[in-house]
């Protein structure tokens, strides 16, 4: 057991949930900031939630928002954390084109609010800060693979806001000697990934289609290439960053890049479905060519096979230009040599393991939906 206290902004998100679990296992007292919402928004951390009425809790949630300096300052002042992980953000790149000012406020100024609160409260020497920086900073390809020395060229309001977050973190480290660090994390996914990010959208859809709960999957740019890792590996890296004597910035990535189209094929492959892609640009489609019956039955279930078989020759994947971005990031591939050498970090999951983990989880989830539908209960049918 250690007596360290950590504060996680964005604890209800994908990374926040994995990180909270990771830190609790290490004996930390974990505080998290959650936003007020009209519905419960703690689904990802419900399994570690502790009743506020019990004594000696080690997971404590506070209402808050990164756009509210007074709230942030009060919480940090009350807790006096040893470590702050600033994961809270409006994290959807496409949505940031719709709400650019909000993205700038939360993702950019939100970082400043954390740093300045720590400084004003006299915690500059005590509190170590992790800033959730991103491979989106690289944006327009300048060089590959991308490392800590690659120039930035952000391509979305999200990435521009995160650029401010990156530099203000470096500035507070240099100006005030704070232990302020950037993790420049490449895309990382998991069964807890938000449903509108591309990998999860794909694995959910493949699972739904296999059970007749969805007809077709509509996607945007199938040519985009991403360096996808597993969120479980990446939260371990966040912690390692804060355990170093000297603050610094690190790229965290797998070093392998994959096209969106290939992730689609891999996900459908898990259910034994072989897709044939034909056509170009907005006219490209993915047609179900054949099914490996044994694999389908093993991973989905015999009861769904006959219906699914009717889809052979049909289009299961199509392009909808509404998912294109005004400016796109075409190619990301990270060089995490520094993290490997200095933090001793390397990923345990490769892409096939990640995809399998997500598919297994979504097939299970959709089976529940399928049973509910059969029982006459409403099934959530909203997908984006
Ligand atoms: P999620 O979108 O899953 O989670 C974001 C979290 O931030 C949620 O808890 C969300 O709350 C919270 N949040 C949103 N707006 C505010 C606000 N105004 N005030 C306080 N909290 C807010 O993101 P991830 O877990 O995937 O990512 C974590 C961080 O890492 C983000 O900063 C993201 O930009 C960054 N990042 C992510 C990468 C990835 O591939 N996942 C790669 C590189 C960086 P709620 O649940 O209520 O919506
Ligand atoms: P990204 O992740 O923008 O890299 O940001 P996302 O999964 O949204 O997109 C990855 C690539 O897939 C293409 N794409 C689609 N994307 C979505 N969301 N929906 C689609 O239908 C679709 N079709 C194709 C995109 O154009 C893009 O090229 C994520 C977020 O977690 C950020 O917060 C984080 O900083 C970066 O990863 C690293």
UniProtKB/TrEMBL annotation:
Please state every residue range assigned to the domain named NAD(P)-binding. Answer: 7-358
The answer, when asked if Lyase is one of the entry's keywords, is: yes
Any one Gene Ontology BP term: 'de novo' GDP-L-fucose biosynthetic process
Question: What general EC class does the enzyme of this chain belong to?
Answer: lyase
Superkingdom, natural source = Bacteria
List UniProt keywords, sorted A-Z. Answer: Lyase, NADP
A Pfam family matched in the record: GDP_Man_Dehyd
Q: Which reaction does it catalyse?
A: GDP-alpha-D-mannose = GDP-4-dehydro-alpha-D-rhamnose + H2O
Which prosthetic group or cofactor does it need?
A: NADP(+)
The molecular function terms of the Gene Ontology recorded here are: GDP-mannose 4,6-dehydratase activity; NADP+ binding
Per the UniProt record, which EC number(s) apply here?
A: 4.2.1.47
InterPro entries given in the database record: GDP_Man_deHydtase (IPR006368), NAD(P)-bd_dom (IPR016040), NAD(P)-bd_dom_sf (IPR036291)
Stored PANTHER family: GDP-MANNOSE 4,6 DEHYDRATASE, GDP-MANNOSE 4,6-DEHYDRATASE
Cited function? Catalyzes the conversion of GDP-D-mannose to GDP-4-dehydro-6-deoxy-D-mannose.
The record's HAMAP family line, in alphabetical order, gives:
GDP_Man_dehydratase (MF_00955)
UniProt family annotation: Belongs to the NAD(P)-dependent epimerase/dehydratase family. GDP-mannose 4,6-dehydratase subfamily.
Name assigned to this protein: GDP-mannose 4,6-dehydratase
């Amino acid at each position: 057991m250690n007596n360290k206290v950590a504060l996680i902004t964005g604890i209800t998100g994908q990374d926040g949930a994995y990180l909270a679990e990771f830190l609790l296992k290490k004996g930390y007292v974990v505080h998290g900031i959650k936003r007020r919402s009209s519905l419960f928004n703690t689904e990802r951390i419900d399994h570690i939630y502790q009743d506020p009425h019990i004594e000696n809790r080690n997971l404590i949630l506070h209402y808050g928002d990164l756009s509210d300096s007074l709230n942030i300052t009060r919480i940090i002042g009350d807790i006096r954390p040893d470590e702050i992980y600033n994961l809270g953000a409006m994290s959807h790149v496409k949505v940031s084109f719709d709400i650019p000012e909000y993205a700038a406020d939360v993702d950019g100024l939100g970082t400043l609010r954390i740093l300045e609160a720590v400084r004003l409260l006299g915690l500059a020497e005590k509190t170590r800060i992790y800033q959730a920086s991103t491979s989106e900073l690289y944006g327009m390809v300048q060089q590959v693979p991308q490392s800590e020395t690659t120039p930035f060229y952000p391509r979305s309001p999200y990435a521009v806001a995160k650029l401010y977050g990156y530099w203000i973190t470096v500035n507070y480290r240099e100006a005030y000697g704070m232990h302020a660090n950037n993790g420049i994390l490449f895309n990382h996914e998991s069964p807890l990934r938000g449903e509108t990010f591309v990998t999860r959208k794909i694995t959910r859809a493949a699972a739904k289609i296999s059970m007749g709960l969805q007809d077709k999957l509509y996607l945007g740019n199938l040519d985009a290439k991403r360096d996808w890792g597993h969120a479980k590996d990446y939260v371990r890296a966040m912690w390692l960053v804060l355990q170093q004597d000297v603050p610094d910035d690190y790229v965290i990535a797998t070093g392998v890049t994959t096209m969106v189209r290939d992730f689609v094929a891999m996900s459908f492959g898990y259910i034994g479905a072989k897709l044939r892609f034909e056509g170009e640009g907005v006219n490209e489609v993915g047609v179900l060519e054949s099914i490996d019956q044994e694999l389908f039955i093993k991973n989905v279930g015999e009861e769904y096979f006959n219906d699914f078989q009717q889809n052979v020759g049909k289009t299961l994947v199509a392009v909808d230009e509404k998912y294109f971005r005004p400016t796109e990031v075409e190619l990301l591939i990270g060089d995490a040599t520094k993290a490997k050498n200095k933090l001793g970090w390397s990923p345990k999951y490769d892409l096939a393991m990640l995809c399998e983990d997500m598919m297994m989880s979504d097939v299970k989830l959709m089976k529940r939906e399928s049973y509910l539908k059969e029982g006459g209960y409403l099934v959530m049918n909203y997908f984006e």
